[in-house]
Automatic annotation (TrEMBL):
InterPro entries: Met_Sox_Rdtase_MsrA_dom, Met_Sox_Rdtase_MsrA_sf. This is Peptide methionine sulfoxide reductase MsrA. Residues 45-194 form the Peptide methionine sulphoxide reductase MsrA domain. Keywords: Oxidoreductase. It catalyses: L-methionyl-[protein] + [thioredoxin]-disulfide + H2O = L-methionyl-(S)-S-oxide-[protein] + [thioredoxin]-dithiol; [thioredoxin]-disulfide + L-methionine + H2O = L-methionine (S)-S-oxide + [thioredoxin]-dithiol. Belongs to the MsrA Met sulfoxide reductase family. It holds the Pfam family PMSR.
Length: 219
């Protein structure tokens, strides 16, 4: 009788484990399909405008942006790192890949976010960071995107900046994601002095300037 009870209890445990495993696999499959669906609906735009901690946080606050990834682009060397681009000899700039849903936000709006969240007249830097790795670059993948960028610069040069914009317009050749510890840095390290003094104030200035572009806060 004792053996029967032990076997029964063991079978019950195995059944529970099997059911939990099946449930977990179903949830993982559901998440995978959701991720694939989101990915299939997104496009990617690339921008560089100073410290990528700041830029990533700004774009992730925009409605329609699914994800922003910090990285390196615009240079001439392979596999750049945070250390090597800091020398200014790789040609790369701290950049951000912006994954967005074109049904919710347009490339033109992202360009507006880009120019509206930094000073495009400052060569090789955004205060307090200076060097070629912090220069202003708007990347394009298609002729349509290039046209949008050039037309926007032309209009802003005429109406706002009196021809002083130094932003580079470059074709996206290769984007290298930055080291993992750089990703979501502003959100994960609110206690960091740089984040407190530079990143958060820059993000808040953007939010005050473009409240209509922001994601609705979840309560």
């Amino acid at each position: 009788m004792k053996i029967f009870k032990v076997v029964t209890a063991f079978a019950a445990i195995v059944l529970v484990i099997t059911l939990l495993s099946f449930s977990q696999k179903k949830e993982e499959e559901k998440q995978r399909k959701t991720s694939e669906k989101v990915l299939s609906e997104t496009k990617v735009a690339y921008f560089a405008s100073g410290c990528f901690w700041c830029v990533e946080a700004i774009f992730e606050s925009v409605n329609g942006v699914e994800e922003a990834v910090s990285g390196y682009a615009g240079g001439h060397t392979k596999n750049p790192t945070y250390k090597t681009i800091g020398t200014g000899r790789t040609g790369h700039a701290e950049s951000v890949a912006v994954y967005y849903n074109p049904k919710k936000v347009s490339f033109q709006t992202l360009v507006t976010v880009f120019f509206g969240s930094h000073d495009p007249t400052t060569k090789n830097g955004q205060h307090p960071d200076y060097g070629s790795q912090y220069r202003s670059i708007a990347f394009y993948k298609t002729e349509e995107e290039k046209q949008i960028l050039e037309n926007t610069i032309k209009r802003l040069n005429k109406d706002v900046y009196q021809g002083k914009i130094v932003t580079e317009v470059k074709k996206m050749e290769k984007f290298y994601p930055a080291e993992e510890y750089h990703q979501n840095y502003e959100r994960l390290h609110p206690e960091n002095p740089y984040v407190q003094k530079v990143s958060i104030p820059r993000l808040n200035r953007f939010k005050r300037k473009f409240p209509e572009l922001l994601k609705k806060e979840k309560h």
